[in-house]
Amino acid sequence: MPSTKKTVAASLAIGALLALSACSEAEMPQDETHKIAVQGTASPSASQETEKPEEPEELSTAQVATTAGAVMAAELGFGSSAKIEGKDLESLATAPTDTLKDIVVLPSQCSAPIEDLNWSPVQLGTEAARTDFTNENQSITGSVEVAKLDGNAAKVKAHNANVATILEDCRTVKLNGLDYRETLKFSDPSVAGADSSLYYSRDGQFAQDSLVLIKSTQKYVVMVSFMSATSLQEDAFNQVATSIMDTAIAQLP
User: Of 71, 65, 240, whose CA–CA distance to 145 is shortest?
Assistant: First the structure.
């Protein structure tokens, strides 16, 4: 695949355009329906049976919230899930740069707001967690991501302002490279209760539809994202995304 296509494919993946890059490079494990991490431990060996069993690892607030969101996603049909942890999560904390290098954005004033869609909560560099999930029957992939604000509320508001700019001035954007052409179309799904909500579609070789919801509490920010090869532009699907978001938020102070 030419380098310009690799750039756009990576930068325009989902949600905050980075949102599912962790599972786009390697196929998501098809595990069982998501289970709360503290449930179940391996059976002790004979030499360990008289020892005090290990305490389950304590979950952070962000991990509790994403776990709850993933459990709700499983109830709504997204039965396969994977927690993004360790180096995979750390890699998402660094915002990608030059994602639109060698790509001409029309109208040109939409370049910065479009590139800012690479933002996601884990980039705040604070306590963060994320779980990805999928519905195999409908080929829809989603994620729930939670991060502590720790004085970074202005960064979230700035991103939400860029989303508002897109909806006001950049509803149709063309990306043109040396051997690449793509059109992005944005709309407001009008999800009640979300601080920021964005629906968009891509045409061309990497055609897909995406939905992104963001909402903050006093101490945390939650992002729920979905990507699909088919349309997600239905009120019923907005309700699915809202239910996952609200479930995660219910676990937060």
Answer: 65
Residues 83-108, mean pLDDT to the nearest whole number:
91
Structure tokens at 197: 């909500």
Tokens 């209760």, located at residue = 193
Confidence (pLDDT) at 53: 52
| CB neighbour list of residue 40: distance below 8 Å, 6 or more residues apart | none
Instruction: Write the DSSP symbol of residue 206.
Output: G
Quote the tokens at residue 235: 């009120």
- From the list 122, 24, 31, the residue with the least C-alpha distance to 74 is 31
Residue 99 pLDDT class (50, 70, 90 cuts)? confident
The span from the CA of 170 to the CA of 167, in Å, is 6
DSSP labels, 69-129 = HHHHHHHTT--EEEEE-HHHHHHHTSPP--TTTT-EEESGGGHHHHHGGG--GGGG-SSEE
pTM: 0.78
